[in-house]
Amino acid sequence: MASLSIQERKRLRQIGHALNPVVMLGDKGLTESVVEELNRALNDHELIKVKVVAEDREARAALIAELSETTGAEVVQTIGKIALLYKKAPKQNQKLSNLVRFAHLSN
Fold it and tell me: Where is the CRM domain (predicted)?
């Protein structure tokens, strides 16, 4: 997967600022149902926030890296326990895509 340019990252972070986490990862880590939910959310919204509730910073970073690898999503930004993930949808959903809904922010 090609890495995002600085401009793309900046735009995605602007949009991500307005979002709330849609998936929360707990102590169980990446279960099959969590991966399914992440894939569904990424497919619908393209840009999502995920809250990782792991106390240990290294464990959190490892979990974020693992979910990025598993879903094929790009980690745009991590702040504390929140990770902002982006994955271009094969067919953009005009009603659900956060990139469409918040396009006005990226001027």
Answer: 2-98
Residue-averaged pLDDT of the chain: 89
Give the whole-angstrom CA distance, residue 104 versus residue 83: 22
CATH 2.60.40.10 is the classification of domain 6-100: no
22-55 residue pLDDT tens: 989 877 778 888 899 999 999 999 999 999 988 8
CA distance 104 to 66: 32
Distance CA 89, CA 7 (A): 19
Q: How far apart are CA 94 and CA 35, in angstroms?
A: 23
pLDDT at 106: 55
Domain ranges of the chain: 6-100
